[in-house]
Write a structure and sequence with these properties.
This protein is of the alpha/beta class. It is about 40% helix and about 15% strand. It is built from 11 helices and 12 strands. Strand 5, helix 4 and strand 6 form a beta-alpha-beta unit. The radius of gyration is 19 Å and the shape is globular.
Length: about 325
């Protein structure tokens, strides 16, 4: 991918209205790529007001529409995903992520796309509480908690099978927990940041996660495109952080008192169940749900050593990512 002109082939990016997809598209454009973004008609447009390329509307479940979007495309970044930890019909999440991944990859093969970066997730890995997990801890669908994680396992295995059986030229990246600017939805972790910054998280459970700046994840996508090996998986992470420490850092940034009450998960399950029932009636998205509580049993700690060694991936301190996220949420009116 070099300096673009009207005759240059396109780089197609799916999910460009979303958090990671918009960051990947911007990074590609800054590098001189001729970017085409595929977006649903119903997708929010907040991240598209200054989109650095061509936008085409289409639904990833529509094979014909995806095939049209692939016209003139030489490189593909498939970032789009149904990223929900809860849905009234959990299997809808699995169907969406498996079906859209298959359709996009089939279209890429038909269009003879030369190189693909597929955005998976560390949700496809089995966490290890004693040490950070690496790419070797691949999970089967029945080894993960919740529909979202299962959907990503199914989709990732589909891509790997197409690489092995049909020569799909795909490199797989596995972001940990991205945070930072342009989290318009926001993501589940973005919601935690917003609630904590507004003083609405007085307590926390004993859990941990790996935080990474979304722009470092985007840079990792480009490095994987340049130097990643076809069929390999690469974790794109940042720093392992206990949830209580993350909330304390957020409190320090916004000038609030840090929460100090650590509560066990067990008493929260009835509240999570109740939140889900309310959401079924209201159509909302429960902040606390059963699957997220089950996930909190483990410390989601990961190592990016493979990506660092093979293509020079690096991530800034997570404190900078938290500060950037809060600054953006303030500007967007989500944090007082």
């Amino acid at each position: 991918m070099g300096q673009s002109d009207a005759s240059s082939p396109f780089v197609l990016v799916t999910g460009v209205s979303g958090f990671v997809g918009s960051a990947v598209a911007r990074s590609l454009a800054a590098r001189g790529a001729r970017v085409r973004g595929l977006v649903r008609e119903s997708s929010p447009r907040a991240n598209l007001t200054d989109f650095p390329g061509e936008l085409v509307e289409g639904d990833l479940r529509d094979a014909e529409g995806v095939a049209r979007a692939m016209t003139g495309v030489r490189h593909l970044f498939h970032v789009a995903a149904d990223y929900r930890l809860w849905a009234p019909d959990p299997e809808e999440i699995v169907r969406n992520n498996a079906t859209t991944t298959r359709i996009v990859m089939e279209a890429a093969l038909a269009a003879q796309v030369e190189r693909i970066v597929y955005t998976s997730s560390v949700a496809t890995l089995i966490p290890c509480d004693s040490e950070p997990a690496d790419e070797s801890r691949a999970a089967a669908p029945d080894q993960v908690v919740g529909a979202y994680k299962r959907s990503k396992v199914v989709a990732e295995r589909l891509v790997e099978d197409m690489v092995a059986a049909r020569g799909l030229p795909a490199v797989i990246v596995q972001p940990t927990t991205p945070i930072g600017p342009r989290d318009v939805r926001p993501t589940p972790t973005g919601r935690i940041i917003v609630e904590a910054a507004n003083g609405r998280m007085p307590a926390f459970v004993d859990s941990g996660l790996n935080l990474v700046h979304v722009d470092d994840v985007a840079a990792g996508h480009l490095l994987a495109y340049d130097k990643g090996r076809i069929g390999e998986r690469y974790i794109l992470g940042g720093r392992d952080v206990m949830l209580g420490d993350m909330l304390a850092e957020i409190a320090a940034i916004v000038g609030r008192k840090a929460p100090v009450i650590r509560i066990p998960r067990a008493p929260l399950f009835p509240f999570a169940w109740m939140n889900e029932q309310i959401a079924r009636v209201t159509g909302g998205d429960p902040f606390l749900n059963m699957d997220s509580l089950k996930m909190a049993k483990h410390r989601m700690f990961f190592t990016s050593a493979k990506a660092e060694a093979e293509f020079g991936y690096r991530a800034r301190p997570h404190s900078e990512a938290l500060a950037d996220a809060i600054a953006w949420f303030r500007d967007a009116g989500m944090v007082r």
